[in-house]
Design brief:
Length: 175
């Protein structure tokens, strides 16, 4: 009887640490790749990355695609600016950029920003998307990226993880 009781206690103790639900947070690592200079339309991300520098930009400045493409590695457009970013007049701007553009906290992917007949308001929701990236490569070809949050949970670590993955993508594009 003592052996059965002891075995039960050991099994219960071992199982007590098990959690059938998945973790809601990831251990995001800092980006340690090549130096990146990123233009931001909106509020700059609150990140302490030593190899990433953010510069605030306006939509008017974004229209100078040659300057943007030669001075920055990417462009971020934040949540508060997505509706304006979806205006038809910017479609040609995004297609002319030689650097990727990332739409942060979008729930609608990249399509409302690069197709002339689609606006941000009438675009469909995209499941599990937190950020979307786009780069026009040639006249008829482009690359895009979608980034979701771990378990679709918004917290500091999961958001930092998305940024780290975006920085890695930018670094790969620059190679």
């Amino acid at each position: 009887m003592k052996k059965l009781l002891m075995a039960s206690l050991i099994a219960a103790t071992a199982l007590a640490g098990c959690d059938p639900s998945e973790s809601k947070e990831v251990n995001a690592s800092s980006y340690d790749g090549s130096y990146l200079k990123i233009a931001v339309i909106g509020k700059q991300p609150d990140l302490q990355e030593k190899n990433v520098k953010f510069m605030t930009l306006s939509f008017k400045e974004l229209e100078d695609t040659n300057r943007i493409s030669s001075n920055f590695d990417a462009v971020f457009i934040t949540k508060d600016n997505l509706k304006q970013a979806g205006e038809e007049k910017y479609v040609k701007v995004y297609r002319k950029l030689d650097v990727p553009i990332f739409f942060l906290e979008t729930t609608k992917g990249f399509l409302p920003f690069v197709f002339e007949d689609l606006t941000y308001d009438n675009a469909s929701e995209v499941n599990d998307a937190y950020a979307s990236g786009y780069l026009q490569e040639k006249k008829d070809s482009y690359r895009y990226w979608e980034y979701g949050l771990n378990n679709n949970q918004k917290n500091d670590q999961n958001v930092k993880d998305v940024y780290s993955r975006i920085f890695e993508t930018i670094s790969e594009v620059n190679e």
